[in-house]
Amino acid sequence: MNPKYKRMIDCLRKKEKSSRKKSSKSRKSKGKAISSERWFVYILRCSDGSLYTGITNNLERRLKMHNAGTASRYTRMHRPVALVYREPQPSRSHALIRECDIKLLPKDKKEKLAIGAK
Fold first, then answer.
1. Domains in the chain: how many in total?
2. Quick one: which of 95, 106, 107, 108 is 20 to 30 A from 30 by CA?
3. Domain residues for 100?
4. What predicted TM-score, i.e. pTM, was given to this entire model?
5. Is residue 82 part of a domain?
6. Around Cβ 81, how many Cβ atoms within 10 Å?
C-alpha cells in the first residue's frame, strides 16, 4: 500500500477510536452536522474474473457508472462488471478503512467474502 494512503488510513482509524470514546449525543464537526448518509464498501467482478473494491453512498448509480466506463480507469478496461459483495458502513471514514482492509486481502479471501454474501 502506498505510504501516503497508509498514513491517511492510520489517521482515520485514530479519529474513529477517539470518536467512539465521545458520547453518542448529536455532534457537530466544524459547524457542519455529521451526516447520517449510509456508505457502502463493494466488490465487483470484472469480465476477466478480477475483483475491484470501492466505496460509494449510492450503489445503483456507481454500478451504472462502472459499466458505462466513467467510474474508474481499472473497470473501464475490464467491463462489464457485476456486483458480488456489498457491506453497509455508518460513515465515509468507516467505509475507507474497511475498503483498505479488503484491498489488503488475497484474492481467495475476497472470493470467500463474495460467496458468503450470497
1. 1
2. 95
3. 37-118
4. 0.75
5. yes
6. 22
Rg (CA), the chain: 16
> Residue 31 is placed in which grid cell?
459547524
DSSP lists the bridge partners of residue 39 as 89
- Cell 500500500, located at residue: 1
Q: Give the residue carrying C-alpha cell 465487483.
A: 44
What pLDDT, in 10s, does the model give residues 53-110?
A: 999 999 999 999 999 999 999 999 999 999 999 999 999 999 999 999 999 999 999 9
Q: Tell me the per-residue pLDDT of 31-53, one tens digit each, with 9 for 90 and over.
A: 444 556 799 999 999 999 999 99
What is the spatial distance between Cα 64 and Cα 41, in angstroms, rounded to a whole number? 16
Question: Residue 8: what residue type?
Answer: M
The reported pLDDT for the residue numbered 20 is: 64
Residue 84 domain-assigned (yes or no):
yes
- Distance separating alpha carbons of residues 42 and 59, to the nearest angstrom: 8
State the CATH number of the domain containing residue 75. Answer: 3.40.1440.10
10-20 residue pLDDT tens: 777 777 777 66
